[in-house]
Every structure is written in structure tokens, then in C-alpha cells.
């Protein structure tokens, strides 16, 4: 058993590759962490860009005013 620590918020998902070599963890901190299951070492941090954050949608039909603003 091992404890992997790198996220700054709650972990939402875990997935293991088919060869059982790598574990990926996705978090509310908007990162994906990659871990070696063989050595327990942290391999990589992936950050997902949010190009639509704080964007105001105008001239959209069928949406409420609240739906037109994408919160950060």
C-alpha cells in the first residue's frame, strides 16, 4: 500500500493503465497527476487550460442569464 501526495484539493478520479504501471489521479485542483505504481514516484503533473473561464456569452438564445456566464 502507498500514499501518493501532490494534489492541493480533493481527488475526483483514479485510473490505472492496462499494464498496471501508471496510476493517474484527477483532482478538483484542476490537475492530473501521473504516478509510477512500480516505484511509487511522481512522474508528471498535467494542467488543463480553461480558455472559456470568465467568458461572457452574448446573443445566445435558449439560455438563462446565469447560463451565459461561465464561472471560474
Description:
With 72 residues, the chain is an all-beta fold. It has strands at 11-16, 22-27, 31-36, 42-47. It has one domain (11-68). It has no helices and 4 strands. The protein has a 4-stranded antiparallel sheet, with no helix packed on it. Strand 1 and strand 2 form a beta hairpin.
- For the termini, the CA-CA separation is 36 Å
The helix-and-strand class reads mainly beta
Number of DSSP E strands = 4
User: Helix count?
Assistant: 0
Major beta sheet, strand line-up: 1-2-3-4
Number of self-contained structural domains: 1
User: Nearest-angstrom radius of gyration?
Assistant: 17 Å
Mean pLDDT: 81
- Strand fraction equals 25-35%
Helix content: under 10%
Question: Main β-sheet: number of strands, strand sense, barrel status?
Answer: 4 strands, antiparallel
Helix-strand pattern:
EEEE
Shape field? elongated
Low-confidence stretches: none
